[in-house]
Amino acid sequence: MDDAAILKRRGYIMGINLGEGSYAKVKSAYSERLKFNVAVKIIDRKKAPADFLEKFLPREIEILTMLNHRSIVKTYEIFETSDGKVYIVMELGVQGDLLEFIKTRGALHEDDARKKFHQLSSAIKYCHDLDIVHRDLKCENLLLDKDFNIKLSDFGFSKRCLRDDSGRLALSKTFCGSAAYAAPEVLQGIPYQPKVYDIWSLGVILYIMVCGSMPYDDSNIKKMLRIQKEHRVNFPRSKSLTSECKDLIYRILQPDVNRRLHIDEILSHCWVQPKVRGLFSAAIIDKEGETSGVHEPPWAPESGSDKKSVTKLEPQEAQPEVNPESQAKEEILQEVSRLLDTRSPAPTGGQPSRDTVEGGSPKPPDTHT
């Protein structure tokens, strides 16, 4: 029987084609039981490579059956036919993916980016707490529901992390994902910490959300790697980004894996937490509760014309910018003093180094590397 007949027997009316590869395709379908549309991923074992069948597919199926989070695509049913086809019935991202959304509408305003990034970070924390890593985080794998909420999808490269006798997570050696979103340690072929790799990709995604372009040009991997290792990040002058937002991106895109933020530090960062936003522009409070004076952040663009992106993800017609609300310096300093008096911990940790900031802006690849 063809796919339509097989799905019909399971209570699904097959719809349009959503995507197709060499051994897998995704169809839309209407579920007579659920009374709404779903996505059906159909994998043909006869056409799939051996390593996919032996390693990646079993991992994906195992992990999909474990996950239950509001910001992760739901899996409703998985079944296999006698002729070797696997059907995975999942939640449908009715508004498409985040990359197409940004290409169509341009960079997100910070409030919208904050909401979506918090949803994504919460999903990653949920996975990491279960010792599950995604390893292919990119805008194409972030679907949007009818209310434009983030739904993390495509766990084809995911795995459960193993621990050694001391309880430490084992390193990974397999290169997964797309080069434009890959951490420098992965690009170098060094055994890497998979959770820390996911974090880097989060930083690339947040940059794309608020800038509408890529932070690094992956058309020249050697040059991109050098820029990454020097901890250089360029923020377009045309975007009125807050210091808190730039600080978070800068700390996530940290080439030193021992200094890169953990998922809990991301979720507690002042930009993600609305109640403490606005303090960073006046002072940075370190973990010991000490504060430095007002300073120029290390990512401040030099005077002169802005360096244009090589490839924009946003439309040519610029979207209106939203400037952050101004706040009197005296009020900010008073709030900092109040926090110091109560010995509140720093929302972001130590002060970033004063590195020169620049970089490129490419288009992400369409296929896995």
Question: Could you explain how this protein is built, in words?
Answer:
By secondary structure, the chain is an alpha+beta fold. It is built from 10 helices and 9 strands. The strands form 3 sheets. Strands 1-2-3-5-4 form a 5-stranded antiparallel beta sheet, with helices on both faces. β4 (75-80) and β5 (85-91) form a beta hairpin. α4 (110-129) packs antiparallel against α6 (194-211) and α6 (194-211) runs antiparallel to α8. The chain is globular and about 55 Å long. One of its GO terms (cellular component) is cytoplasm. Its cofactor is Mg(2+). ATP binds at residue 41.
Shape: globular
- What is the number of helical segments per DSSP (H or I, 4+ residues)? 10
Round the mean pLDDT to the nearest integer and report it. Answer: 81
Number of domains: 2
Secondary structure class reads alpha+beta
Sequence stretches where pLDDT stays below 50 over 5 or more residues = 282-296, 300-311, 314-369
Distance between the termini: 34 Å
> What fold name stands as the CATH topology of the largest domain?
Transferase(Phosphotransferase), domain 1
Please indicate the percent range of residues in DSSP E strands (runs of 2 or more).
5-15%
